Amino acid sequence: MNATAVLQADHVDLVRDGQAILQEVSLTVRPGEHWALLGANGAGKSSLLSLLGALAHPTRGTVQVLGHELGRVDMRQLRSYVGHVDPRHALRSPLKVQDVVLTGLTNTIERVPRWSPTAEQVATADRLIALLGLSDRHGARWPTLSQGERGRTLIARALMPSPRLLLLDEPATGLDVAGREQLIERIDTLQHTYPELASVLVTHHLEELPPGTTHVLLLRDGRALASGPVDEVLTSDQVSKCFDHPIRLTRADGRWSVRTNRPARP
Ligand SMILES: Nc1ncnc2c1ncn2[C@@H]1O[C@H](COP(=O)(O)OP(=O)(O)OP(=O)(O)O)[C@@H](O)[C@H]1O
Q1: For the CA of 50, the nearest atom of ligand 1
Q2: Which of 43, 166, 196, 211 is the most exposed place for a label (fewest CB within 10 A)?
Q3: Domain 7-81+163-260 falls in which CATH fold?
Q4: What are the TM regions of this chain, as residue ranges (predicted)?
Q5: Which of 13, 16, 41, 59 for a ligand 1 pocket mutation test, highest count of atoms within 8 Å of Cβ?
Q6: 170 CA: nearest ligand 1 atom
Q7: Whose C-alpha lies nearest to ligand 1, atom 4?
Q8: Which residues of 99-126 are buried (b: 16+ CB within 10 A; e: fewer)?
Q9: Minimum-distance ligand 1 atom for the alpha carbon of 43
């Protein structure tokens, strides 16, 4: 593995029920890099993220997460070093925000009976709650949180064990425009606060890309269409091919927007 890489996938294939979901996908993520996995519905983004988060094994090829090759290490232990933010977080108890964030230390969804955090761990949780803009919701209970507040709580939770890698699976799905903007602002803040942290964010909306995105992998039908620094990969031409639609891509103040590229009217 590349000595400095946080993640390295080499020629990865993933087959499920006889169907090729990923083919020949390679990706190297280094500290401080912020990758976006972009592609249409069904392109294979979440499947790739599940390999990077040590939730599944590749059918062929190798995946190394934090220097450990999947298949040769205890996947459960490896998972505890990766901050994985899954919007389908199945919490049933009405835990307070602070308690939800603290479950990041036990890597469990519910609170572990008879486990209690140290004063230092509680202070870390409070610092992360503030970083994610949730100080005024500190004591609020999970069922009363808005979807945006839940998403930011889960990012704070994922950061509790000081991971070197943060995986974000469609973090802005279902958010209104204010919720989306607050999320992007907080992701921007945390990227500046932890300059060594690497991240991989899955989305199909280019408007949701944080301005700190450094690299992009465009996936189409399970294959990498293009991969590399954001300015080289995010072109109207390549994004049009990725989504199989004529797209005009523009960037302003570090953010992207897309329109259908219609021929000019005579
Ligand atoms: N366990 C599985 N068995 C069979 N097919 C699967 C399985 N998991 C995913 N697939 C298929 O693999 C393809 C890629 O799915 P995946 O969820 O990775 O795509 P995605 O790019 O994340 O899509 P979306 O943007 O809609 O979330 C889809 O066609 C999906 O139906």
Answers
A1: 18
A2: 196
A3: Rossmann fold (3.40.50)
A4: none
A5: 16
A6: 27
A7: 16
A8: bbbbbbbebeeebeeeeebeeeeeebbb
A9: 21
Predicted TM-score (pTM) of the model is 0.92
Report the b/e string of 200-238 with b at 16+ CB within 10 A: bbbbbebebbbbbbbbbbbbbbbebbbbeebeebbeeeb
SS3 200: strand
**At residue 3, does pLDDT exceed 80?**
no
pLDDT tens for 234-248 read 999 999 999 999 999
Please report the ipTM that was assigned to this predicted complex.
0.94
Whether residue 266 has pLDDT greater than 80: no
Hey, whose CA ends up nearest to atom 26 of ligand 1? 41
Residue nearest to atom 25 of ligand 1 (CA): 41
**Of the residues 15, 17, 25, 46, which should be mutated to test ligand 1's pocket, given the most ligand atoms within 8 Å of the CB?**
46
Model pLDDT for residues 109-145, shown as the tens digit of each residue: 888 888 899 999 999 999 999 999 999 998 999 999 9
Pairing of the two strands 215-220 and 34-39: parallel
User: In terms of DSSP H, where are the helices of the chain?
Assistant: 45-52, 75-79, 97-106, 119-131, 147-159, 177-193, 230-233, 236-243
List, chain by chain if needed, residues with CB within 6 Å of any ligand 1 atom: 16-17, 19, 21, 39, 41-47, 204
Cα separation, 79 vs 52, whole angstroms? 10
Cβ contact 107:163 at 8 Å: no
